[in-house]
## 1
Amino acid sequence: MRSFSSIRKLVMAAALILVPASSFAGVFISVNIAPPVLPVYTQPLCPGDGYIWTPGYWAYGPDGYYWVPGVWVQPPMVGYLWTPGYWGWGGSAFIFHAGYWGPHIGFYGGVNYGFGYTGHGYEGGYWNHGVFAYNRSVNNINVTNVHNVYNRTVVVNNYNRVSYNGGHGGIDARATPQEEAAMRDHRLSPTASQISHRDAAAQDRGQLASVNHGRPQVTAMRSVNQRAFNQQQRVANGVRSGQMTAGETRNIESREASINRQAANDRAANNGRLTQQEHQQINQRQNNVSRSINNDTHNAARQPQARPQARPQARPAAHAAPAREERR
């Protein structure tokens, strides 16, 4: 059994290397091991009007399952909603059904992803004459940034954190006629920012289930561009714990500053935007920094803890008052 698993992993790795990342959504992926349970996390604040919440999920790569953080993204067009991807038992392996954009919510395995994705449909909001209305009962909304809101209680019947449909221990759910009809609607693949977001998670070893044991370092982001902030938080955590030395910290901060300068220069030369090639270059450099942070926080180097200096003891005065009278 072990040799079969090793061969399967090698074949899977080769297939993933040969397939371009941009075409991942159309790749047929099957795995003989069930994905981990969904981690519990807090939804970041919605960045502004028009953003749609896309929940986090377990994806699969050459090194096994890895967590793709939940993130607020802008839909490819007004009126479209996000149907999350899900893992389903296919009789001999778990098959990934990729998420997609469409005018209606389709079937996503009955998985309760939270924040309005209760397992069937979406209770987080709806499009109203070209404007998206947000349900504040399930979304983290700041009314200063987002104005079209309402409150509607959402009843959830599925409270488990199982992340797959069918098979041993999986969710027993079937598509409704409405969900089947939605799957026949016009559908759009994940946007370029979603693909970049997923690829970034794939390059971060801290997101691997084999490394984090089902507790990813980053569970959710306010936006795809928040990755640099999250990496700064990882550095801060490493400094506080003593896992990152002063030299390692300076190196990471210098590289982050260089990336920020590159992004600023590229935007200035392109009317405030980044081209797809520039996005890829920035993402690759951030991937390298992320790997360095992971290495720095897991190597043998430690920041020496400062020892408190001994205070010189003052000589008692000739007529010192009793100690109990000094405590006021």
## 2
Amino acid sequence: MKRTLPPLNALRAFEAAGRLGSFKEAAAELHVTHGAVSQQVRLLEEWLGASLFERHNRRVALTPAAKAYLGEIGPLFERLSQATERYGVPETVARTLSVNAPATFTLRWLVPRLATFRAGHPDVEVRVETSNGPLESLKEEYDIVIRGGPDTFYGYAMRPFLSEERLPVCSPALLQRIPLRVPGDLRQHTLLHTSSLPRLWPDWLASARVPALRPAAALTFDHFYLTLQAAIDGIGIAMGPTALVADDLAAGRLVAPFARPRLPSRSYCTYVPDGKAGDELVALFRSWLEQEGPMKR
């Protein structure tokens, strides 16, 4: 006989949210985000063709039909848990760690290193979302938020893990075509800019004592990772953040024609909600970041 079963992940989210009376508390218990619980509940409501919750600010209340439904399935989840323990199936399941980080940092530093974390911790699923907005503007809570700093935000514990400076970088092929011996030689080159960081080149040129220098051309991009890619492709010279171009310099995709001056820059820091500061998985990932990106002493 064919069984009529709803999506089990959606059912699990509903049972936790209904029992606890809160999507946020259900997300904490299931080790997922508030948004993931909300999405699964909506999926179950669509499957059933009925509303399950009445939303009230920070709390949710079951509809009468949902309350009766929960009364039927709640004991089933308890029996399933007991059966799992009784027959020796390991309790541990894959944990999901939610991380929010800037796009360029994620693309050029975090993603190339995630394989090493996954190799050492195959039972941990890392969900990365990118955002360049301020921490206080995030619409959901993450286990770890990566931003510049050090800054202080109420309700968050901060730790720096990666130092950074900025200096000019370009492709080796470009340097062979048009050599750079002194900062004044930049007059013969195209300078690459990022619209969100308009002061990088003026500040560096002032530090290099050529503040009035006019380059042969200039190109401006709306995302920093596009600016760096243009430098790799030999289009011009970018102001490269040392942390994010270290792999390209080591591989020879980029070169730094001038070792000095270097512009100081904010460090990368982890910001963890106070309620998650004692979480073992959060501490594990935080420590791994600190090992991968030592701070300049």
## 3
Amino acid sequence: MKDQKIELVVFDMAGTTVDEDNVVYKTLRKAINKTGFDFSLEFVLEHGAGKEKKQAIIDILAEANVHDTALADSAFEDFKGLLKEAYDTLNVSTYEGTKELFDSLRSRGIKVALNTGYDAKTANLLIDKLGWETGRDIDLLITASDVENGRPNADMITLIMDKLQVSDAHHVVKVGDSIIDIEEGKNAHCIYSIGVTTGAHTREQLLTANPEYIIDSLKELESIL
């Protein structure tokens, strides 16, 4: 990678850069289980991590051979209310070295963008809690509600590239904590899709998506880049 000119690094949020103790997926589990299921958090993470949250509910239910649009809609509406309650008192932080990494990359002319399976309202609430500002701490935030097709489709990365005027995906790196993050990077034809083990999926699970690198901390990314 050291011989490859990197212009942009796209980071996932929760589980990759933002440590919010899996509150979103705990809340997603609670909302689904209120409709009569008993899914574990591990099951919810395995089948829903990284996805737009309504789609995550649909996919989790499908794993139990349940294909009920009305049920998924009801669980999603309940999830949004429960998440608002959870976020009112939530303490969030970044993983160690995240802000320093962003500053280092941006000081070298490498753009830093965040993307997420959250909607814009949820993502911006996290950004506000962290005190981050676009233009000062990151270059851009794009969420699932900004595009037609969520992960693993490449729409979010394509939109980021367009807005930040990066024309060649071979100058883009994607970093995320879930299989679907890696698949997104590959579908966007990023030069590297990198998995990090701090979030939703284990090293073994991430390996199934064939990332170019797997790291245990964002601090390791500095030496790779």
